[in-house]
Structures are given as C-alpha cells and as structure tokens.
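Changelog-adjacent note: as of this version, every example in the card shows the full chain rather than a window. The one below runs 239 residues end to end.
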Amino acid sequence: MSSNEPTLTFEPAPRRKLVETVAERLLEAVRTQPAGTRMPSERALAEQLGVGRSTVREALTGLAALGALDIRHGRGVFVASPAAPGLGHEPVAPALVRAQTNALIEARLVLQPEVARLAAARRTEADLRALERVLEGQRRLATGGSADRATRLGVEFNVRLAEAAKNEVLAGVVRSLFHRMLDRAPRLQELADGFGTWDVGEHRGIFQAVRDEDGELAAARVRDHVLAIRALYERLGEG
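Full-length structure tokens:
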C-alpha cells in the first residue's frame, strides 16, 4: 500500500442510525405479512441482520410504539393489524425516539428515588460540596450559554447524587442510564423554553433534602421530578 495514501478519520456511526436502519428493514418485511404472524426470535433476527440483539430489541420496541408490532411478553412478537398506522408509511425515527425515551424514563422512576434515599443517609460533606459545585454551574448556564454544557451538568448532578449513595453498582447503572439518555433521548434544554431554570430549581430541592438527611423527601422529590420530565416529553410529542 502506498505510503502517500491519505488517512481519513471518521466519527463512529451513531447507534441511533443503526437502530433506524434495522427498524426500517424489519418494517418492510412486516408489511408483507398478515396480522398475527409471529416474528423470528431476537437471536435469529440479529444473526440475519448482522447486528447485536440489543439493536434488534430496540428496533422491535420502536415498531411496537408505532403500532406495527405487538410484543406479548413470554410469547413473542407478532405482526399487528394491517390497519395499524405503522404498517403505512409513517416515519420510523420518531417512534424509535419515543420508545427509547419512555424506556429510559421508566428506568429512572424505578432507580433514582431509591438512590436519592440512600444518598440522604450516606452522603458526606465532600459529596455535598461536589453537588453544590454542579448546581452553581447549572445556575450560571440556566439563562444562557451552551445548551450542551447545561445538559451535561444536569447529568453530572444525577451521577454525583448516585455516587453519594455509596453503592458502586448503583452508581455504574446510573452512569450507563444517563449515557444512553445523552445518546438517544431528545434534549429538553434545546426543546423547552425555561427548562434550564426549572431544572436547576428542581435539583436544588433534591439537594436540600439530601443535605438535611431526609430520605423520604429526597425520594419523593426525585420521583416528582422524573414524572414532570415525562409529562414534558409527552407535551412536546417526544414521549
């Protein structure tokens, strides 16, 4: 190979695009099948499409949100009614985003209130200082500045809160969860006017409950916060 051949550098292909491609291929196949047809297993589809099972699972969930498929837990995945909107020519990408966003919010509701409860019982002064630094950064960016930076500081608050719970397994799960949210969920900082100011106020209330070692209040405030975010996604047509 010639040493003069140019070297090209590419960014990794976004996972979302891979899931969309798989979903579109599955939808084309689904349109040819009568209602009630059972789909091949995730493993079989992954092998046929040359992708991981998690990619197939995400695509199937999105098509179910579109109405093209019916996921019957413990029984399999089936083609929905031919009259379902998803069997027409509706765009696949928005359905995939909605399905992934809903799954992430559901995971947050299960996990984060208990993380906050533990953080209230186990936090140290160093944890409180770290949380306060993040809150101050959020406050400065609430009414201006980089929306991306503000989003990442919001994520950092949640990660720092998990670290204050002093359980490395939970902290790792929270990091992974918010990595997925950054990668796949719509960014409310960019979609909703005033979100930054609201978000820092919500985080401040959670911080105060953790600082005061009030686990019940911390858990309740986190749950209410996540429910409000879910409602906002729904209002914006993203959930």
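Structural remarks: The first strand starts at residue 69 and ends at 72.
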